[in-house]
Amino acid sequence: MPDPKSPSLLDADAVSRGEALGLLARTVVEGYRVGEHRSPFKGFAIEFAQHREYTTGDDLRHLDWKVLGRTDRHYIKQYEQDTNFVAHLLLDGSESMNYGSAAVSKLHYAKALAACLAHLVLVQRDAVALNLFDTEVRERLSRTDNPGRIHHIMDRLAAFRATQKTALAVALSDLARQLKARGIVILISDLMAEDDEALANGLRQLRFGGSEVIVFHVLDPHEIDFPFTGTVEFEGLEGGPLIETQPASIRKSYLEAFATWHRSVRSACDRAGCHYVLANSAHSLAETLSGYLAFRRKTTAR
Amino acid sequence: MNFLAPTFFLAVGAIALPVAIHLLSKTRVQRVRWAASRFLAAALQRNRRRLQMEDLLLLLLRCLIIAALAFAFARPVLPGGGFNFSSRDATTAVLVIDHTASMGQSAGAETRFSQAKVAGRRLLEQLPAGSSAALFLAAGHTVRAVPRPTPDLALVRRTLEAAAPSAEHGDLFGGIKEAVELLRPLQGRRDVFVLTDSQSAAWSQREKIQALREELGETVNLHVIPVGDRPEPNLAIVRLGLGASVPAVGQPVRCEIEVKNFGALASENIRLTLAVNQDAPLDEALLARIEPGASATVGLFATFATPGHHTLTATIPADALAADNQRAVAVLALDQLRALVIEGTPPVSATERDGFFLANALAPVSAVETARFYLRPTLATPAALHAATLAGTDLVVLTNVPRLDASASAALRTYVESGGALIVFPGPATDPDFYNNDAALAALLPGRLGPLAEPAQGAVLASQNYTHPVSALWNDREMGDLGGIRLDRYYPLTPANSAIGRTGTLLRFADGAPAALTREVGRGRVALFATTATTGWTNLPVHSAFIPLLHRLIAHLTQQADGAPTLAPGDVFSRPVAAELAGKDFSVLRPGDTLGRRIAGRIEAAGETARLTFADTAAPGGYALFMGDEARPLITFAVQVDPAESDLTPVSPDTASTSSALKSQIPDLNSTAVAAPSRELWPWVAALVFVLALLESALAHRFSRAK
């Protein structure tokens, strides 16, 4: 039975807009089924790709007889093969994700985003795998292309509780080692790791393996704008210090430090060739998801 | 530096307030579980020092504001200079504090007397070790508060603190002389310190003081310490009199009140009120403007509901000197004034008789109202002049009486000397020689009657320039013209020797010769006219001024008959009373007493009579003395400030009239023994508090902006 909380993770608006836009692999993925995505393996399916000279052992069924007739030369026709992709959802389940200035915490927002993405992937007959991590990978759901498994995914998402610190480098390198074939890695995290360099290294490692990486950077509006007034005692999550201060008096400095970090994150993503998506938890999930998918559709070459 | 209200320093404890508020605010801290601690910590690290400095600065400012407020409320006084004792030798000193009424002047905060006390206290603190001091309060008479020099300076200080200002008038010479005489026989260093507001009235005998100083030489040092800077503007009620009204029950009494402006600027819209027995004011007037140095006289009316002793109090709004803003007078209100008109000749008819005009002028009302009118004239013959008749009479009028027998004239003399009033109108039947030569009458009459004068054209009275309080009313032409009174026949008057009793010229002929005279004899008063009270010799009885003149004269003659006394502050009130009151307690209602009367003393037996004595007359105003629970006072009296005290002009060291030696004693002086007047610092501290508060607000606003 699905968890009663599970349905809340699926944003109906986000899902319907997402379904309309689809999730197209931005780069070529190695699928195991024929789907909507281009495979790097030049096969012999529908879409012609190029000619190459015949060599011994080639299947004569792919010989281009018309070229042979006209030029008396042996060329084999090659086709681009559409294939299924595997979306590896990598969800940050560290304690810092528990923060939420409104009713929705970053973790909840991230869970809902992951559920919507999983649903989208599954309905377009692609496969999805789920990894929940903090200092290490805590939950792992092997890949599946069965749409009926979405409830199972949501159950696992809903049941997860964030209690530990973040070790982004561990999670990313762990995943990079496990990936046998290229796919799409979707990292959903607030990226508040102690070491920013770990993020860059992890992303590079994944990209080196040939995977496309999308980073959904989940942030709370209060973290972005820091609108606190009066005297506030900040109790640091993930073992951060207890700080009592008058936020208004340090807001400018906070925003400067925050902007610097944000730029470095974006820069790391850009350098690694990843898509960076700012997921402000104040915005609706549909807005965030459809915005990115629209952008992706526009920029993805088929 | 001294403090006038050091108790307020306890408020410095309020510095704990901002600290407490800071600590309390901790309990209202919003708690947030926060993910982005690293940026917060970085921001805090970058701003920690600045934030600490800002918090510290704001806390310091807030504490400073509270401390400065407490400092301001403690009223710091900065001395202009201290006493520079040339040596540290112990001295024997006498502090002479000016105790006159003018020391009560103030600019609103503190009186000159308070300032003198502060200066005196500072002086005591600065006396060299081993010194001793005495304390005199000098005015008309000197109060030796600490009669002999004592080394217990704390006692002197306490006595000084307890000293109260007075409303007395007087010169400081007496007090200074007493202080000098006290020190003269002693050995060692001796100093007399005079703390004064330098009011010229208190220094009227400065030449004597200077002579005394020169006589002293080096034996006793005389120092004058002025307090206060410039004199304050002052309005004063300098006169309150009944004018010429008879104080009788139900009869409006016109009181003449003179208000004088002693300030350097004109005063406007001065509200003047008149009240009876400390009740609500019965009448009031608004004086539009009084120029500097000028005075204004106003007539206000009061009515007495009951006969007996009352006080009338005139009041103007409060100003620099409180003592002269009120002036009171004691009044004995009569139930009915009984007048005995003695006609010298038998009446021919109802209208042709010596007392016809007089009787009608004395009671100028209809027959129905005669019984209620305050004056009840009775016509009689000279035979009625005996002690028994006169005992129940308030006024005796002789008209055309030829002569009196010895017993009648003796009874008349006794009657007047004991407080009775007498008016004499001569006539054709009058024997001038008898009037001039009879011992009893000669002792009473204010003038001698000359041989009958019959000028062809008659003699008219002067129109104006009368100085007598009765006739001065006609100096105002709107009141009528006495120049219309013509005398065809009269006896020229020669004023009697004024040494016997004070005489005054009631009426004057145009050539200046007296036409009517008045005189005080014992406790009574007498008036003598040159002509008749009938129309045979003069038109006076039918002149429009006759009735008011006669009534004003009667008021004048009877006003002091009972001697409702007026005392100076500090005088002892003493008066004989009925013998049966001896041994009984009496109570007093003092000016401004809101808690009612209180027991004031006991009437003492004095031989066959008794005497009431009351000494606590320091406060100016009306006093009422009561026996037991009686509602009506046994007697009233008034204590009045001398108008000279209202003139706050200081003796100027620059004027030629001031002796040169006094110049070196009063203010500007280079004398090291003179301390400059102290200055209150609280306005500056209050301004500092204001600036600090503004600074605190601006900084708090600036610090709270996002950084």
Structure commentary:
The complex is a heterodimer of chains A (302) and B (707). Chain A has helices at 6-9, 12-21, 65-71, 106-123, 150-159, 168-178, 196-208, 221-225, 247-272, 285-299, and strands spanning 37-43, 47-53, 75-83, 86-92, 127-133, 137-144, 184-189, 212-219, 232-236, 242-245, 275-280. Chain A is built from ten helices and eleven strands. Chain A is elongated. By secondary structure, chain A is an alpha/beta fold. In chain B, a hairpin with an 8-residue loop joins strand 29 and strand 30. The radius of gyration of chain B is 35 Å and the shape is elongated. In chain B, the strands form nine sheets. In chain B, strands 17-16-18-19-26-25-24 form a seven-stranded mixed sheet. In chain B, strands 6-5-4-7-8 form a five-stranded mixed sheet, sandwiched between helices. In chain B, strands 27-34-33-29-30 form a five-stranded mixed sheet, with no helix packed on it. By secondary structure, chain B is α+β, with helices and mostly antiparallel strands. Mean pLDDT of chain B is 84; it is low at 654-677. In chain B, helix 2 packs antiparallel against helix 15 and helix 3 (112-126) packs antiparallel against helix 4. At the A-B interface, strand 9, strand 10 and helix 9 of A face strand 2 and helix 2 of B. Strand 9 (232-236) of chain A pairs parallel with strand 2 (30-34) of chain B, so a sheet runs across the interface.
